[in-house]
Amino acid sequence: MRDQVTLTINGRTVTVPRGTTVAAAIAGAGGWVFRRSVTGEARGPLCGMGICFECRVTIDGQAHRRSCQILCRDGMDVQTA
What pTM did the predictor assign? Predict the structure, then answer.
């Protein structure tokens, strides 16, 4: 088993250690706006443990996934705001 996984974040290929959450991968890639509020305000993770729901992103076409609760896997496609 490889020690790293490769995924795409907003069209950019990123390689991270296996076991990295999607939220950590996004932050590591320099992203801090994970979604937009209904009024258009930038939102990002607050709690990092799945309670605040501010880290929601689209993963493989599925919207509103809590990125802090999902581990990266090879070939994953992540879209932020």
Answer: 0.92
The pLDDT of 18-22, averaged and rounded, is 97
Answer whether 27's CB lies under 8 Å from 42's CB: no
DSSP-assigned letter for residue 68: G
31-57 pLDDT, tens per residue?
A: 899 999 999 999 999 998 999 999 999
Residue 71: C-alpha distances to residues 11, 36, 44, 59 (Å): 18, 22, 17, 11
pLDDT of residue 2: 83
Please count the other Cβ atoms lying within 10 Å of the Cβ belonging to residue 70: 18
By the 8 A CB rule, do 44 and 32 touch? yes
CA–CA gap between residue 3 and residue 38 (Å, rounded)? 38
CA gap 1, 11 in Å, rounded: 25
Rounded Cα distance, 68 and 21, in Å: 6
